[in-house]
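User: Before I run my own analysis I want an independent prediction to cross-check against. Here's the chain; please return only the structure tokens and, at the end, one sentence I can use as a sanity check.
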Amino acid sequence: LAGIPVYLIFSCFTWPVYAISVLALFFLAVFVSREAERIFNKKDAQEIVIDEIVGFQFTMFLVAPTVLHILAGFILFRFFDILKPYPVSFCERRLPGGYGVVADDVAAGIYGNIILLLLVKFAGI
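Assistant: Structure tokens:
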């Protein structure tokens, strides 16, 4: 849920500025996740949600900020983040430190974005 206010701000940007903002947030999330791993002595500490925020921004890329789109995007992102189909699970297990923590959410976000864009285009949501 923390990703929704960030998305509402980012959705005001042009798509190139949105993309650059998400990229900057990605690198911040990698740093925060790496430091959290060191501080909490565990990978992907539940106290840290910046990786989820980044993943949700990927799901919502190029999608209009309507209530239905946000709800569908949130459900799709959580579905893929929990299910962890390949390569989501690969990213989490194989990439080092903060990159693995954030990359699995990015992969889940990309899956969510593809499905959401298809739903918007072909199902008219």
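Sanity check: The mean pLDDT is 92.
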